[in-house]
């Protein structure tokens, strides 16, 4: 055994002792420790078990109702974390990207899958990437994408219609699974002119389809080992569950992505057919070589390549989940479904323009209310990379009776941003905040919601500031196209009792059947043709 190995083994106990000391020191000196918050049932896991086993939005809402908009909760080894739905605090955090970063566990888990894309990079590199990517998501580009949205939505409609014919008047479908397929096809076509063939009747997923599905599930599977790897980089070279699956998937995505990138460069240079010059990747490549972008701020091939899985994740899983929750809400609120259908059936075509679609007031209200009530991500996290002072709009009284109008944040402290906590706040939205009520958008909203620092719709769903969702217009339009197409064609009901459907979150909040959690997210729906008299 070499001297270096012996020395390394000898120093392990010392290093472990140092980590334990650091753990207790940080907890003892934490500025969060005296804030109000829920009790813990486990020193090892803190409140983590309750958080995992509960429906996130409702669970955190209970905390806010009991302890206020800014509270302390505990994670592993009883370490304190801050949870806030305070609009002033959220605005400060979201607009100070050089102070508040995404935590290492978020970067490590997603970065293994996407590479250095918009989800991963921080500070100046994020600012430079966003400047280059932004033109691809302009309102003008969306007009062309809407053609693909309708093409795939109508394809899904026809598949469901054929299932109804086979079952004689009514069929049961998994709404979430079919929406996953539709949105994957859409982002393939709009993102890089690639056909995933997810809606293909043969049901055979192609190579990139399989690679994305396998890679995404491996990258987002939460485990204790993932947490250890995110905190201790030295452990990342050790094998872990799903590593081989992720590595194979990433290699496949990179190989196909490089071919797509090569084609995009030829298109940008005018050296090949222009058939895919309007997809996101081609637009990005063209923007990247624009003379207005200084050479030192342009993206490398690795950076551009990382946008492929970034586009797929952002434009696929979140939109399918959000639309699934829309169908869930409409199946529970049949009067809303009928009112929406009445408006949609007044449109004389299956394929309205983007302007005509956006002029439908009740469709707009339903989409807004669903994104408020069922945010795809109920919360997100940040970690301070510098000391800071966090201002509060609602003061907090700590356990010592001290009223705090601000909280001192130390470098390394973690904060959970309450997306659903804000979206469902009675203080902001009124006493009916916990009701699914599209009609709220038909009249003036409460003045308090103007303080919400969101990029769209006076809500936190798409976040805000420099890291606000760059593709929110894309997501909203695709949801509108899907609801327009499906609600015009079908009566939609839940195929199981409503009590059977719960939400679980792994980055994105999905519907699950309560006694079939291990089967993954699903939304069983009963569909039938709309009667001509309606």
UniProtKB/TrEMBL annotation:
<keyword id="KW-0349">Heme</keyword>
<dbReference type="InterPro" id="IPR001128">
    <property type="entry name" value="Cyt_P450"/>
</dbReference>
<comment type="similarity">
    <text>Belongs to the cytochrome P450 family.</text>
</comment>
<dbReference type="Pfam" id="PF00067">
    <property type="entry name" value="p450"/>
</dbReference>
<dbReference type="InterPro" id="IPR050121">
    <property type="entry name" value="Cytochrome_P450_monoxygenase"/>
</dbReference>
<keyword id="KW-0812">Transmembrane</keyword>
<dbReference type="GO" id="GO:0004497">
    <property type="term" value="F:monooxygenase activity"/>
</dbReference>
<keyword id="KW-0479">Metal-binding</keyword>
<dbReference type="InterPro" id="IPR036396">
    <property type="entry name" value="Cyt_P450_sf"/>
</dbReference>
<dbReference type="GO" id="GO:0020037">
    <property type="term" value="F:heme binding"/>
</dbReference>
<dbReference type="GO" id="GO:0016705">
    <property type="term" value="F:oxidoreductase activity, acting on paired donors, with incorporation or reduction of molecular oxygen"/>
</dbReference>
<dbReference type="GO" id="GO:0016020">
    <property type="term" value="C:membrane"/>
</dbReference>
<keyword id="KW-0560">Oxidoreductase</keyword>
<keyword id="KW-0472">Membrane</keyword>
<dbReference type="GO" id="GO:0005506">
    <property type="term" value="F:iron ion binding"/>
</dbReference>
<keyword id="KW-0503">Monooxygenase</keyword>
<keyword id="KW-1133">Transmembrane helix</keyword>
<feature type="binding site" description="axial binding residue">
    <location>
        <position position="469"/>
    </location>
    <ligand>
        <name>heme</name>
    </ligand>
</feature>
<dbReference type="InterPro" id="IPR002403">
    <property type="entry name" value="Cyt_P450_E_grp-IV"/>
</dbReference>
<comment type="pathway">
    <text>Secondary metabolite biosynthesis; terpenoid biosynthesis.</text>
</comment>
<protein>
    <submittedName>
        <fullName>Cytochrome P450</fullName>
    </submittedName>
</protein>
<feature type="transmembrane region" description="Helical">
    <location>
        <begin position="6"/>
        <end position="25"/>
    </location>
</feature>
<keyword id="KW-0408">Iron</keyword>
């Amino acid at each position: 055994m070499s001297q270096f190995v012996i020395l390394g083994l000898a120093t392990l106990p010392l290093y472990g002792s140092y980590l334990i000391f650091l753990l207790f020191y940080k907890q003892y000196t934490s500025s969060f420790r005296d804030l109000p918050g829920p009790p813990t049932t486990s020193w090892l896991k803190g409140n983590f078990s309750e958080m995992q086993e509960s429906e996130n939005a409702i669970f955190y809402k209970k905390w806010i109702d009991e302890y206020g908009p800014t509270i302390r909760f505990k994670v592993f080894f009883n370490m304190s974390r801050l949870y806030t739905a305070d609009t002033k605090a959220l605005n400060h955090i979201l607009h100070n990207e050089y102070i508040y970063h995404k935590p290492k566990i978020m970067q490590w888990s997603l970065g293994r899958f996407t590479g250095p894309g918009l989800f991963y990079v921080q500070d100046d590199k994020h600012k430079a990437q966003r400047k280059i990517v932004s033109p691809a998501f302009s309102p003008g580009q969306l007009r062309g994408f809407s053609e693909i949205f309708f093409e795939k939505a109508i394809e899904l409609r026809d598949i469901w219609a054929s299932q109804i014919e086979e079952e004689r008047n009514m069929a049961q479908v998994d709404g979430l699974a079919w929406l996953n397929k539709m949105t994957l096809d859409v982002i393939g076509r709009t993102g890089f002119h690639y056909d995933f063939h997810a809606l293909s009747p043969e049901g055979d997923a192609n190579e990139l389809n399989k690679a994305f599905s396998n890679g995404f599930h491996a990258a987002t599977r939460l485990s204790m080992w993932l947490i250890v790897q995110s905190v201790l980089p030295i452990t990342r070279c050790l094998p872990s569950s799903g590593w081989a699956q992720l590595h194979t998937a990433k290699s496949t995505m990179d190989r196909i992505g490089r071919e797509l990138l090569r084609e995009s460069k030829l298109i940008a240079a005018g050296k090949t057919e222009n058939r895919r010059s309007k997809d996101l990747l081609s637009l990005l490549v063209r923007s990247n070589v624009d003379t207005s972008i200084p050479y030192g701020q342009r993206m490398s091939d690795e950076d551009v390549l990382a946008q492929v899985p970034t586009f797929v994740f952002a434009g696929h899983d979140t939109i399918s989940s959000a639309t699934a929750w829309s169908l869930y809400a409409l199946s529970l609120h049949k009067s809303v479904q009928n009112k929406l259908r009445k408006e949609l059936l007044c449109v004389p075509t299956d394929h309205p323009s983007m302007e005509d679609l956006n002029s439908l007031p009740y469709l707009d209200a339903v989409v807004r209310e669903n994104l408020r009530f069922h945010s795809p991500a109920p919360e997100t996290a940040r970690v301070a990379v510098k000391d800071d002072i966090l201002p509060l709009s609602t003061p907090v009284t700590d356990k010592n009776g001290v009223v705090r109008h601000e909280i001192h944040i130390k470098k390394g402290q973690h904060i959970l941003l309450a997306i659903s906590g804000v979206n469902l706040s009675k203080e902001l939205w009124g006493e009916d905040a916990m009701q699914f009520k599209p009609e709220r958008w038909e009249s003036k909203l409460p003045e308090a919601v103007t303080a919400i620092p969101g990029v769209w719709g006076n809500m936190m769903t798409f976040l805000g500031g420099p890291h606000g969702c760059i593709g929110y217009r894309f997501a909203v339009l695709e949801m509108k196209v899907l609801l327009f197409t499906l609600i015009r064609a079908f009566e939609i009901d839940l195929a199981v009792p409503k009590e059977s459907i719960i939400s679980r979150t792994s980055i994105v909040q999905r519907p699950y059947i309560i006694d079939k959690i291990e089967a993954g997210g699903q939304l069983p729906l009963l569909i039938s043709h709309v009667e001509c008299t309606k």
